[in-house]
Write a structure and sequence with these properties.
Radius of gyration of chain A: 20 Å
Distance between the termini of chain A: 66 Å
Number of domains of chain A: 2
CATH topology of the largest domain in chain A: Elongation Factor Tu (Ef-tu), domain 3
Oligomer: homodimer
Largest interface: A-B, 81 and 81 residues
Chain lengths: 258, 258
């Protein structure tokens, strides 16, 4: 039908903004957005895309599409096929049949909850929930979610309809871990304990590592360690990555390290 | 949170394929995909993105996301605000609060039905239904539609929840127009009459032109003219754009012109 093919044509895209999220590293990020309601992020728009009028009316929508760049994967290039976790990490499927970051153009797509639009001196800041973005992700576009054309609940989901097995049934916290979460939450207004619970329920362990007993992941400036038990997952330590801030030193939290 | 802002950072994107669709021009294209079930298109992938293994497993999904370039709008740049048809063409809303093609990066997003994957000598050809793509649209990415994270039927839809008024209640065809559609359909296996009916029901007329009586649009290689009547829309003529093909000359279709 198209008579002249313009093979390998290229276009420029600009980064219109940047995401700051609770996920400083890939490990732990839920495989799709919406699975982990307490995960959160903000988008700050760059000039000239940061004029308040550019998001006028967006606040009436409960959800938005964020098109973004898988910036950490971009350096690795792309692969023709991948081994999706739901296929047990053994079977391969085509890159266009899954949502892997290692794809041509490295464009990501997530429907997330729009919690608030804050109009600051540097332009709009969008507050988002139910996210699966890595911190510092470049944003390419923002669109409203239109349920009458975007929501197809009875779509056939291929291999993605397969339920993964082995996710922990129960999540428990040591007293010290729970106490840290409680204080952190009071200080930063971040729902740390709920978020850890949701993330472990979604089971971030790669198939290849499921024989390991202990795991660690990072959320915001916090390091989390948990141990797999027969009944589920026990969160054994929650602590800051690096130096402890002064306010923490004055508390009784020093026993939350192993 | 993000300490160094990299304003106006740019990336390259490659066109991974091209769309051939039933819509050779913008006028008549439904405002969102899925509204017009009989609209159709194919995607042909460019090398090196046309290896069969790259779509392996995709056939198990009923719907896919196509991320594409609004190539006709790209030359016009973008606007901070637009006047969406649903707001009567008067009120403005921000570019990120609507799905206008005149947006930064000109990236489009449509969930469409995946009808078939044809594996030819030049690689996979994806057959799609319920599309809103302009013919010759460059493709940037293809992803499976995952209902468990993409389908949010109860999302609040802002101004997009407003129903437009003035759409024709009935669509009728003159005998000559219906006869042309019938013969065209037999010849090309394209559901022309159903498609015209669906498109007119979705009412492609821009608000600014609603006082006009007669309208025209093109589908594939065919020109369609209709007239607004009190009871709805009357399709008065369906004909080829340019020269009539030989097979048509031998038929009794010469009376389908006004």
């Amino acid at each position: 039908m198209s008579s002249e093919k313009t093979d390998n044509k290229k276009s420029y895209i600009q980064h219109i903004g940047i995401i700051s999220s609770c996920f400083p590293e890939k490990f732990g990020i839920p495989r799709q957005p919406g699975l982990v309601a307490h995960s959160s992020a903000v988008i700050d728009l760059y000039p000239p895309f940061n004029r308040a009028e550019m998001v006028s009316g967006l606040g009436e929508f409960s959800h938005i599409w964020v098109q973004f760049l898988f910036h950490q994967a971009a350096g690795d290039g792309w692969r023709s096929t991948v081994r999706p976790p739901r296929l047990g990490g053994q079977k391969r499927c085509g890159v266009f049949a899954c949502r892997t970051p290692h794809r041509p153009n490295h464009i990501g797509l997530s429907a997330v909850r729009l919690l608030d639009i804050e109009l600051g001196r540097n332009g709009p800041r969008l507050h988002l929930g139910g996210v699966d973005f890595l911190d510092k992700t470049p944003v390419l576009d923002i669109k409203p979610y239109l349920p009458y054309s975007d929501a197809i609940p009875d779509a056939a989901a291929g291999f993605a309809a397969i339920t993964e097995s082995g996710a922990p049934e129960q999540i428990r916290f040591t007293d010290a871990a729970a106490e840290f979460c409680h204080r952190y939450q009071l200080r930063y207004q971040r729902p740390l304990q709920n978020l850890i619970g949701e993330l472990l329920t979604a089971d971030p362990r790669p198939r290849s590592q499921k024989r390991k007993k202990e795991f660690g992941m990072r959320l915001w400036d916090v390091n989390i360690r948990w141990r797999m038990e027969e009944w589920g997952a026990l969160v054994i330590a929650v602590d800051f990555w690096e130096e402890k801030p002064a306010w923490l030193d004055q508390t009784a939290l020093s026993d939350n390290k192993e």
